[in-house]
Amino acid sequence: MKKKIIVLLFAIVIGILTIFKVYSVQKTEKRDYDVRVDLKQGTSLKRVFEKIGVEKSIFFKVFLKYEKDSGKNIKAGFYEFKGQYSYEDILNMMEGGKVKYKILTIPEGYSIKEIARVLDEKGYGSEEGLKKALENVKDFPYPTPNGNFEGYLYPETYYLSVDVKEDEIVKKMLGEFLKKFPPEKYPDRKKFYKDLIMASIIEREAQLKEEKALMSSVFYNRLKKGMKLGSDATVNYIYDYQKRRMYYKDLKVDSPYNTYMYTGLPPAPIANPHTSSMEAAMNPARTDYLFFVVTSDGKHTFTKTYREHLEVQKKKK
After folding, report:
1. In sequence order, what are the residues at sequence separation of 6 or more whose Cβ sits closer than 8 angstroms to the Cβ of residue 51?
2. Is the domain of 300 the same as that of 223?
3. Which of 13, 118, 181, 218 has the fewest CB atoms inside 10 Å of its own CB, making it the most exposed?
């Protein structure tokens, strides 16, 4: 009986050692790959591994879970696997962020200062570096009063070189803007700039794309009547969008961007808008609306009179 137990234990030990040996070979064995994967923030790792072709390997799954902490240290980026790689090579590259390109996503409606903060957080640059890069831009076809490029850094996802500098980022973003708005299509630069200012306000005020043209009509209707725009977004721009909520005391700040204090458009854009906001600025809906107030889930209620506007606000409370 003891002899059988010893033989069984010996067999188990041999089996375990064999599994470990096979596992060790499998995780370091080189295989041929020719694949590129775009791993964005929040992307499912399972889908990425499916594209690479490793998700069905039990050895890869074990290596990922027990030696690589289930991929918690994997970094976003554009990876290229062309040649021979082991499972260990693949995960080491993704943990080390050895990307072919860096990915930079600029949200719609960010100001230049907010974009600078994104660059700083991702280690792609600094506010000072971005400022210098913009100062070095020559022969830009659209108005940039006092060297102000607010409105022209187009919000998009960009694929950048690994050793990217602020100059390259600025070139990419301005280039994308010019693709969206070719200079030859907009010969009236003065009008274009006013539209851009309006688009930037719409971008910061509207949460739903389908409301942008309506919101545009409100602002243009107010301008026609000589009314102040009364946009919280233009005032919050003065505070670098640090205010989560605007109070009456905040609206007393004396600045040409304070559209509660001064009539007309602010002197420059307050953000970098998406094409949909620019389209709304150029083609406002035809309405008699003069007011709007957010009511629920980002939706706004539009009204023609101040009395109606007050009634909506009362119901909201």
Report:
1. 35, 37
2. yes
3. 13
Euclidean distance between CA atoms 215 and 262, whole angstroms = 19
CB 204 within 8 A of CB 232: no
Cβ contact 181:151 at 8 Å: no
| CA-based R_g, the chain, Å | 28
Residue pLDDT, tens place only, 142-155: 999 999 999 999 99
- Angstrom distance (rounded) from CA 121 to CA 138: 28
pTM of the model: 0.75
Give the CA-trace dihedral at 170, 176, 181, 185, to 10 degrees.
Answer: 100
Q: In the structure, what pLDDT confidence band is assigned to residue 17 with cuts at 50, 70 and 90?
A: very low
How far is residue 104's CA from residue 118's CA, in Å, rounded to a whole number?
9
- Residue 307's CB is within 10 A of a number of other CB atoms, namely 10
pLDDT band for 11, please (50, 70, 90 cuts). low
Closest CA to 19 of 65, 68, 58: 58
* CB contact set of 53 (below 8 Å; sequence gap of 6+): 33, 35
Q: Is 303 helix (H, G, I), strand (E, B) or coil?
A: strand
Residue 142 within any structural domain of the chain: yes
Q: Where are the beta strands (DSSP E) in 226-283?
A: none
Range of the domain at 76: 27-96
Alpha helices, H only, 164-274: 166-180, 189-205, 212-224, 232-238
Write down which residue in 96, 128, 154 finishes a domain.
96
Which pair of tokens denotes residue 229?
């725009």
Rounded Cα distance, 144 and 140, in Å: 8
